[in-house]
Structures are given as structure tokens and as C-alpha cells.
Design a protein that fits this description.
globular, two-stranded antiparallel ribbon, mainly alpha
Length: 269
């Protein structure tokens, strides 16, 4: 069996025809999405080519410090994405650090757990295993955290009068915002729940597909994919819980008052 089928840049150019077709439809239907499609696709190509070169170097050097540096850069960019995807966000450094820290702690804990127990490469921090695994966990946790925080902040601002009424009636800050927090948590959990429910029947995940295409036995590919999905689900849950409850703590105070003055939107309101 062939180890893998090597792709050429001509093959990639042919595959991009469908994306170009979408841009043409956008122009014809006056959707205004063609520029976004072009920028997103160009950004993706540049980023992946750069990542490929960086990872090739990192794998060859096999340095724990270089591996840690790459992981830190990944966290930094993911934290920025969480911050940028929120319509309303915490003011100051809290807007960036709260989401990034929740994602980092959850993703790092779950990744280290997998590397030192189930996968157990030699050395355990081997970049060939650590960085791809951390990237998958981090990416999905980022999505859950950003959705959870965006839902929480938007809903708290919209329902601020109802929350303050509950506080005036003597409820604690946690009791007053409990309906909002449940909505935010459901929003953050929904993508990974949908992904797990559809995996295998509706879709074959990218990692599993890649392993099968490279010649790995499908049963072994299934085992690895199950491991990855369990890790992603666990990290996403921990990250969303940490981010939502930390943000509620920040948007209230010890006197059980609502502190939406610590919240700002893109327009500054």
C-alpha cells in the first residue's frame, strides 16, 4: 500500500477553482463576500505555507524550548481571535487575557495529560506529537470560549434591567445571572456537541481522513480520532466553564452589583 499520495501545487490550484466559483456567485448575486473570500483564502495559504516551514524546522531541531515558543505563539494568536470575535468584550487587558487564559489552561492541561499518558511519545514533549495535538485542542477550545463569552456579554447587556431587578430583590450575583450563564454555556458547548454527534455518520474528521489516506488501518485511525474528540470535548468544556464564570465574576462585584461599566463594544458603548 502506498504510504501517501503526494500532491502538487497544480493539484491545489485545481481544488481552488470551487472557491473562485463561490466568489463569482458572490459577484453575480451582489453578496459582497468576494473580497472576504479572497483575503481569507490568501491568508490561509500564506499561513499554512509558513507553518509548514516552521514545523519542518522545529521537528528537525526537536528542542523543548522551541516547541514551547511555538505553542506560546499559537496561544497568542488564538487569544486574539477570541477577543476579536466578541461584539461586546471586557475593557482593558481583561478583554484579551480572560479568554486567552481560560483557553490556555484548559488546552494545556488536556494536552499534557494525553502526551504523558495515552500517547506517551519519547520524549513526551516531542514537537511532532505535541504541536499538532495542541493545535487541534486549542482551535476547538477557542471556538467554544469565544461563542460562550460573546453570548454572555451580549445577553447580560441586553437583559441588564432584569438582572438588576433580581439583585434588588436580594438574589446573589450568581443567582441573578444564572439564566444568562446557562445560555452562554449552552452556546459554548454547542459546536463540540454537534461535532461529536455528527462524527462518523455525517462526516469523517480531518485527522482520521488524513491517516486513512496515508495508509493507516481504519480501525487504528478510529482509535486516534476518538482520543482526539474526547480531548477536544474535555478541553472545550473546561475552557468555556472557566471563561464564562470568570467573566461573570468580573462583571459583578462582592457587593452583588452589576458592573457593565467594565464592558465595552466595538463602538465603545
Amino acid at each position: 500500500m502506498t504510504a501517501y499520495i503526494q500532491l502538487s501545487y497544480v493539484d491545489l490550484a485545481f481544488a481552488s477553482v470551487f472557491l473562485i466559483l463561490n466568489a463569482v456567485f458572490s459577484l453575480v448575486l451582489k453578496l459582497g463576500l468576494e473580497r472576504q473570500l479572497l483575503i481569507a483564502s490568501l491568508r490561509m495559504v500564506v499561513q499554512l505555507l509558513m507553518v509548514g516551514l516552521v514545523l519542518k524546522t522545529v521537528f528537525a531541531l526537536a528542542s523543548p524550548w522551541l516547541t514551547l515558543l511555538v505553542a506560546a505563539v499559537m496561544i497568542g494568536f488564538a487569544g486574539r481571535e477570541i477577543w476579536a470575535r466578541q461584539e461586546r468584550r471586557l475593557d482593558g487587558m481583561w478583554g484579551y487575557s480572560l479568554g486567552a487564559t481560560s483557553m490556555m489552561l484548559a488546552g494545556t492541561f488536556v494536552t499534557l495529560f494525553a502526551l504523558t499518558t495515552q500517547i506517551n511519545p519519547t520524549p513526551w514533549w516531542s514537537p511532532q506529537f505535541a504541536l499538532p495535538l495542541f493545535g487541534m485542542v486549542l482551535g476547538n477550545t477557542m471556538t467554544g470560549v469565544s461563542l460562550g463569552l460573546d453570548t454572555l456579554h451580549t445577553t447580560m447587556f441586553r437583559e441588564r434591567i432584569a438582572i438588576e431587578a433580581q439583585l434588588l430583590l436580594g438574589r446573589t450575583r450568581w443567582q441573578a445571572v444564572s439564566p444568562v450563564s446557562r445560555r452562554a454555556l449552552r452556546s459554548g458547548f454547542t459546536p463540540i456537541i454537534n461535532a461529536m454527534a455528527a462524527t462518523g455518520v455525517v462526516s469523517l474528521p480531518g485527522m482520521m481522513t488524513g491517516q486513512i489516506l496515508s495508509g493507516v488501518d481504519p480501525q487504528e485511525a478510529v482509535k486516534y480520532q476518538l482520543l482526539i474528540m474526547f480531548l477536544i470535548g474535555g478541553a472545550t468544556g473546561l475552557g468555556v466553564l472557566g471563561a464564562v464564570f470568570s467573566s461573570i465574576w468580573r462583571l459583578t462585584d462582592h457587593r452583588h452589583r452589576l458592573r457593565l461599566d467594565r464592558l465595552r463594544s466595538d463602538s465603545g458603548l
